[in-house]
Amino acid sequence: MSNTISNPQDAEFSQRHFEANDEIDLRELFGVIWAGKALIISITLLFAVASVALALRMPNIYKSEALLAPAAEAQGGGLSALANQFGGLASLAGLNFGRSGSTDKTKLAIEVMKSRKFTSDFIGKHHILPELMAVDKWSLSDNKISYDPELYDINTKEWVRQVKPPLQATPSMQEAYKKFTKIFSVTGDKQSGLVTVSVEHKSPYVAKQWVDWLVSDINQVMKQRDVTEAKRSTEYLEKQIEQTNVADIRTVLYKLVEEQAKTIMFAEVRDEYIFKTVDPALVPEEKFKPKRALICVLGTLLGGMLAVFIVLVRYFVKKRN
């Protein structure tokens, strides 16, 4: 039977040997880094200068945002309650008011704002395609926007950019939508129910104006949707009233017609139909990005780590050869 128990003195000697090797390796590592300090300093300095130049070249981006609260009626009003009470007759009348747990108008409005159609209509209605796709910089002194001459000719109001097919000189709405989604945000707080709409732009005045337009347009769009639906429902209900002789059914149908009339009346007298403004958008005085100091620090650190890596790789390659 073989002896598997090691000598304690041999184990202690091996441990000291490994610790000595580790110490030698660390000394050797620091020695290599110290020997290549000139290269490390040069690369780090190069990255630091490049990061500073990049940070200075990046234009200021300003962010304007508005805080909105859902209108009380947007969570479902008397019409929904009546539909729950007379669900069968409401379905018979061709009306879909939604039930408990369904998407309310606030959530629907948020999704509409994110949709391609709403974005395309918004861009076309306010003629903001040049401000979205071709802005070069904004001047603080005279509050003027300058456009990239390689993209847009401000004198002739024509697009002059050079692109490959199937793209055209004038940006398509698909291109505009992709660009707009990068600078536009709408989020809802599940706990408070409040909604935040924000826009980022090189001009703080443009950012503020677009937020105001977005809030106004979504209220108008949702209002028009409900009014159109209410009018169609009213026409259908009136036909059903004419065709039935059952008193109870006629009573319920009249109540549904009354609720539709209330919907139309409410829409006509309220500008803030879906969202009420809690905190309106302001012209931001401070830039939102870029974080120039952070860019410079990260660029310098990246250069330093890369330089150390290059020095170590060169040393171990030479050592193996």
Concise overview:
It is built from eleven helices and eight strands. By secondary structure, the chain is α+β, with helices and mostly antiparallel strands.
What does this structure look like?
The chain is of the alpha+beta class and 321 residues long. The protein folds into two domains: 33-58 and 291-321, no CATH class; 60-289, Bacterial polysaccharide co-polymerase-like. The protein is 60% helix and 12% strand. It is built from eleven helices and eight strands. The chain has helices spanning 8-35, 37-57, 78-85, 87-92, 105-114, 116-126, 129-133, 173-183, 204-243, 247-269, 292-320; strands spanning 62-70, 135-139, 144-147, 152-153, 158-159, 184-188, 195-201, 275-279. Strands 6-7-1-8 form a four-stranded antiparallel sheet. A two-stranded antiparallel ribbon has the order 2-3. A hairpin with a 4-residue loop joins strand 2 and strand 3 (144-147). Helix 2 packs antiparallel against helix 11. The longest helix is centred in the last third of the chain and has 40 residues, at 204-243. 24% of the residues are buried. The model is unreliable at 1-5, 75-82 and 92-102 (pLDDT under 50). Residues 22-123 form the Polysaccharide chain length determinant N-terminal domain. InterPro entries: Bact_polysacc_biosynth/exp, GNVR, LPS_length_determ_N. Residues 276-315 form the Tyrosine-protein kinase G-rich domain. Keywords: Cell membrane, Membrane, Transmembrane, Transmembrane helix. Pfam families: GNVR, Wzz.
